Every structure is written in structure tokens, then in C-alpha cells.
Amino acid sequence: MSVAIRVENLSKMYQLGQIGTGTISLDLERWFITRVMGRPDPFLRLAEANDRAVKGESNIVWSLKDISFEIEQGEAVGIIGKNGAGKSTLLKLLSRVTSPTAGRIKLKGRVASLLEVGTGFHPELSGRENIYLNGSILGMRKREIDRKLDEIVDFSGVERYIDTPVKRFSSGMYVRLAFAVAAHLESEILIVDEVLAVGDAEFQKKCLGKMQDIGKRDGRTVLFVSHNMSAILELCKRGMLIETGEIVRDSDAGSCVAAFFERDKILHGSANGRRRNRFLDIRNISVNGGQRYQIDHSSPFDVTVDLSGNDIRQATIFFIVENAFGQSVLHKKISSAAIGQAVIDGDFQIRIDLPSLWLTPGIYSMYFKILVPTDRWSGRAISDRVNLEVTGPMEPSGRAFINPDVDWNIRALESARVAEGVAI
């Protein structure tokens, strides 16, 4: 399979605060060294990693630093990382919204991108006019857009307002139309940032379904940035984890998401270890007594988690299972007093015994959360999260949250009434 995206030694530098070096003389020196003498920019040597939580010594930061990767045609790749890691910068570079400081990008085919609400739309033009504008920017002919127009409008669900200037659209209507345009116009590469959070749950589900179709049926390449790990696992086979402008893991999506949670736990623990150890910690989720987070959709199972606390009172414990669209399919809560521990002081293990959930097979996100409504803890929640794989036969329609085994039978109406003792 051919390579759709090739990135070689890509870097992007930004300057914080004032633009320029600070003085005219240094600006002229920089211009002369780089433009006339053709030497490397001496000020770039001062650049630091873009760690937003740490005060740096330089006002020049690397949003991306020397990254390289290849994505094959038809791959769906999830890009994950904390806020400020460089994910959106990478997508902007791939979409050619901005240019790199160093490195090369090679793209095979047309790119449709949805980076943030408002990107690529002219506020004074109507929804219909913006569809044609976006198609023209992608290099499509008018007859190609004509062929897709009805499908785009129908998918967006804003038909009544399609001839209204988009500046009068709500943010939800805006992103509906923008996604519909990006997904339906015939580009070989689709780039989607975390803009689907603007839409409602039904539309998010619709978008994820469309992106699955784009990747599997149409063979188009999809790059997807999201903080919804269940959606990443549902949509993507491959994942890339970015930290402070560098790719720290490039693997299958499941391993990448697991690494993200593990690194987040380590970083969070080192930064707040004293506070966490002093008050409360919850960790080590186990399913059926093991670390293999897999269940059969028709079998009961148990979940345990380790809990440590120091004089914690009035704690409320939550157990939550979410599907790929971030919707809670199971949400249980109980006070610690109700399970015999009004004060959490020491080390404990919580166990939940669950019946058959009959969940539709797939990847789910499962975690515990604890809230303590006191001044000591300020209502803060601590959670440990794992990915739960549900196995079993898939319902052909794929439209339900649960998929129980049911017995079907049919008999004549008269026979049924006689069997029930009803006079005919």
C-alpha cells in the first residue's frame, strides 16, 4: 500500500510574548545571518520544549521538535496527548494552515481538514455557498460538488438554514455543516481535530460512524485528534502519543492509549505525590482477579480496585463504564459508609459483582471515581481507568447498546389464545 503522508524531521517554533528579538539591531543581525549568509538562525538554539506547566528561561519554544513518521493510504490514526502537547500544531502543518520551521511534509492526494469551528468558512456567505467554496479550495469541479450537495445537507441536519449566512449559525450548526463538507467532499486525506465535542451525542455518534465508513469503505486516510479515548479505540487501529512536541509512542491504538494513561498517572503522581499520598489514592483495577480486561457479553464478572486513604470522610465512590462515544452505559455510585467504611483510613480493596451486562461487543472505558465534599479535598475526584474489551457475537444492525440472547418463537393467534386459557 502506498504512503499517503510522509513527515521528515518536522519542527515548529513559536515565540512567546513580543514578536522579534526585542531590538531592531538584533532583528537586522538575525536577518543578515539567515537571509544573506545562509547560516542557521542563532536564536533558535535558545528554544525550549513547550512544557506549559514549567516556567522557562527562553521566550522561544518548540511546539514540535524533530518528528518523523509515515502513514499509509487508508490508515486511521489517532493522535493523543495532553493539552499543549503539539497535536493541533501538527494538524495545522499537515493542512498547510501554517508552515514548518524545519523539516518536510509530503502528502499524496487532496486534504480536507476540520481543525476548529470557523476554519475555512466565510461568515458572510450562506451554508450552500460555503459548501461550494470549500469544494473549490479542495480543487473539485462544480459538477462534483453538485453531485454531493444533497448528501452533505442531509447529513448536516441544517437544511432549513442552508441559505442563511453562517455567521448566524450556532456553534453546533456550524460544526455540523463543516464536518459534513469535510467528510463528503472527495479528498484522499481527512484531518479532524477535537471539534466534534461541540456537537451533541447523537451527532458525535453519526460523525464517528461516517469516519469509519470513510476509512474502511472508501480507503481514505483519517487523522483524528480526540481526548475521548474510547472514540480513538473505536475508530483507529494505530495511535501516536505526543508529549511536549515529540512523539513518545507510535504503535497500535490500544497500546498507545494504555501508555497515555500510564504516563499520565506517573506524571500526576510525581507532581502531586505528597498530596495524593496524604489524602486518597485509588489504583490497580482488576477484572475477574486478573489484569486481562476482557469479558464475555453474556457472562457475569467482578471488578476489584485498591483504595488507600488517610482519614477520608463522606466519600462517594463511582463505578462508570463508557462506550466509544463517551456515553455512560453503566453509572453506579455508593457512599463509603453504605459499604461499611464511614472513614477511609488505611488500605482497602473494593469489589463489585456484576451480572451479565449484555453489552454490544467492542472496546469500552471503565474506571472508578471518588468525590469527597470537604475542604480538605475540595470535592476533587481521583480515577484509575482501563479499557474493557467485550467479546461475543455482533448484532448485524449494530444499533443497540446492549445485545442480549433472546428466544424467538411464533405461533398462530388462535393457538396462543387457547394456550393462555382465553375463550375464542
Structural class: alpha/beta
- CATH topology type of the domain at 274-391: Coagulation Factor XIII, Chain A, domain 1
Biggest beta sheet attributes? 6 strands, mixed
From the spread of the alpha carbons, the general shape counts as: globular
Low-pLDDT sequence parts: 267-278
The DSSP helix count reads 9
Helix fraction, binned, reads 25-40%
Write out the CATH superfamily name of the domain at 274-391: abc- transporter (atp binding component) like domain
**Mean pLDDT reading:** 80
Radius of gyration: 26 Å
CATH class of the domain at 274-391: Mainly Beta
Termini separation: 68 Å
CATH architecture of the domain at 274-391: Distorted Sandwich
List SSEs in N-to-C order: EHEEEHEEHHHEHEHEEHEEEEEEEEH
Strand order of the largest sheet: 6-7-8-4-9-10
- Sheet-strand content, in percent, reads 25-35%
Please describe the topology of this protein.
Layout: E1 3-15, H1 24-36, E2 48-49, E3 60-72, E4 76-80, H2 87-94, E5 102-107, E6 111-114, H3 127-137, H4 142-156, H5 171-184, E7 189-192, H6 201-216, E8 221-225, H7 229-235, E9 238-243, E10 246-252, H8 253-279, E11 280-287, E12 294-296, E13 301-313, E14 316-322, E15 328-335, E16 343-354, E17 362-371, E18 382-391, H9 413-419
Helix pairs in contact: 3-4, 3-5, 4-5, 5-6
Task: Note down, in words, how this protein is organized.
It contains nine helices and 18 strands. By secondary structure, the protein is α/β, with parallel strands linked by helices. A six-stranded mixed sheet has the order 6-7-8-4-9-10, with helices on both faces. The protein has a five-stranded mixed sheet with strand order 12-18-17-14-15, with helices on one face. A four-stranded mixed sheet has the order 2-3-1-5, with helices on one face. Helix 3 (127-137) packs across helix 4 and helix 3 packs parallel to helix 5 (171-184). 33% of the residues are buried.
